[in-house]
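User: Quick sanity check before I run a bigger batch. Here is a single chain. Can you write out its predicted 3D structure?
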Amino acid sequence: MAAGPQHAARLPESQYAVREEHGAELADHGIEGCVGERQRLRVGLAERDIGEADARCSQVEHCLVKVGADDLRIRQRLRHGLCDDAGAGRRLEDQLRLELHDSTCKVVRIGLEEEGLEAALVKRRDRAGEDCVCRCHRNGLPLRRLKCSKEGQMPDFAAARDKMVERQIAARGITDAKVLDGFRQVPREAFVPDHLAEFAYEDSPLPIEADQTISQPYIVALMLEAAELEGDDRVLEVGAGSGYAAALLSKIVDEVIAIERHQELATLAGERMERLGLENVSIYEGDGTRGFAEKGPFDAIIVSASGSHVPETLLQQLEIGGRLVMPVGEPHEVQKLLKITRTTDDEYEQEELGAVRFVPLIGAHAWDEKGGRADARTLPELIRDHAEPLPDLDDPGFGALFDRFADARVVLLGEASHGTSEFYRARAAITQRLIGEHGFNIVALEADWPDAASIDRYVRGRPKREGEDAPFQRFPTWMWRNTDADALIRWMKRHNERRAQEEMAGLYGLDLYNLGGSIRAVIDYLDDVDPEAAAVARERYGCLQPYAKNPQGYGRMAISRGFAQCEQPVVQMLRELLQKRAEYIGEDGDEFLDAAANARLVKNAEAYYRVMYHGAAESWNLRDTHMFETLCQLLEAKGPDSKAVVWAHNSHIGNAAATEMGQIREELNVGQLAKEKFKHQARLIGFGTHTGTVAAADNWDEPMEVKRVKPSLAGSYERMSHDSGVERFLLDLREGADERLVEALMEPRLERFIGVIYRPETERWSHYAQAVLPNQFDAWVWFDRTQAVTPLPGRSFPARTKCTRSDSSAGRVP
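Assistant: Done. Predicted structure follows.
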């Protein structure tokens, strides 16, 4: 749908003239009565020229035309019968027969004048029986001959087609045999209006319906050759227009998907495909700038109109190794034809193929109808337009807004810090809704299993284990011993009191830090169900007992001795426990699940503390893999209808592959593993804030402080959310989200991560990492200003231990 070259300026009315080398009759809307008289008022033509034209013309047809969107629309037409004896130097008869033909808005479509230009058009039939359709140039320059054919004789389209391929395409350097053969097979005359069929093989674009154009054949050939098409390719064409390029593609590749935004053109193109028997072409009406993800990925994408930029949506729908060919540039200006090859998931190579001129690409990711960028709004404006304001946290409508995620098997709820009240209260409201209205029965926390198990006994009314330590006595105590977490626990207790045991919602821990608590839990369980196995467990776990309160010491020991002293015993303990599953589970399924989880924790904790000195990525991956495996064990144990809500930091539940965690540090996390296993049945919901207060410490194992959160950095996702002006909102980023919003959010930006340690003085380097939000989360929950959690009464933390985490450095996300 390329546009032809355009005139530089509007013709003055006094210079409306139509002439060839020997001249031609004058014509304009003012012709009436004596043509000869009016000729004397014209500039640039002599009576001699009129005479020469008249001598060889039996009839001249005159039109006044107006150019608009690269076409000529006939305004008035006058037919003048000329005198056969009008010779050189003679004046025309004073009176000519005039016949007015009303042909308003008939498309003639020449396409060289600029929009709004009025010019005279003449169609002359000479005595040799040839019709010549000519057109005006400025200042009396010679006309360009557009048509010359014998009257009443049908053109030889096959011969014209062969000549086009030879002279216009192959002669200009197109060598791909598949492309050349395609042009020889597809009748271009079938893709232009009937009255222009005889011009089908001209070396130029031609007008078609809906004020669009069919591209110059050579330009189409250039684009198809650049796409490096193969026979088994699936190709997307954006801007199908008449369907000509799609038909050519059908002769080269297996499948063609073509999108056209004009209903009239899409309908006509579809009819042409059916008429020509092209069964491997599908024509769709719609916004081609959005692509067609359901049919992708594509081996090649051809865009037959000029965009403001290459839409990210189209790039994402290319196969690895796929090629996209597209013009880019301002409407009605010279543009660049680009070829882009996708080399990896996020890398592309670009090549410029030359200067072209195409009609503008209209759509959500290109130009709008007025010639401006359709997506010219800023990111904060787009966020504001699509954000769903959230009611107060105590409003029942808050949780109801998250019903849209209830069809998932797992809903993972994040937090941007471990000490922000709004994050806890929001997650509690969502969790209560999912449990109460949608049957979720697992609440899995970023907490140690034995500590959460103690709380689970309370919320499900199970007996407390004798000698069990009080939960959450280790740093950071405020993370779960706070008033907001306490309110959720008490709500779950009340909810379960009205239900049978199998209908209750349980609370579980996914983390692996409480090594000593898990060792005790396994031994206590075996003391009850298998005293002999308990004795074996005491012996095997004895290897780790000296390090139960200082597990990182075991890691240092393993490094210094060069071997894993305790690995084999703890692995064997877990293996034997699982082998006796059938025997043990009959006693009490919940107690066996608890013991197995603790045995698995001991095994993984041994490995975690052993590798923590080898590198942060290895220990992080082991920890998050353990958390995910524990979640999967819970879902399996609770049956096929079980559904889980996960509470963890954004760094654990957002897809690590979309952040520098995965892209640079080679780390994975629970969110990534959940997406890989459960696909759309896992929904990842991130949380963010601009400023306020947070409960955090300066260093690991130091007292909690209420710290002021610095305003978010310029350019970060948090600053974009703040600049939207919406105080609190939900931004749904799932499939079907507004593509302009998603594309704008796809630009990698900084995102803030505050754990249990917060160091504002080095915030940029300690607490920000780069991410791509739409790939990281399915939704983004925003609170512009937040406040710190309130710890439960009592000591803020127990007497200090030497226990540390591998991620305790300030620069490490939680």
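The two ends are 54 Å apart (CA to CA).

User: Great, the batch can go ahead then.
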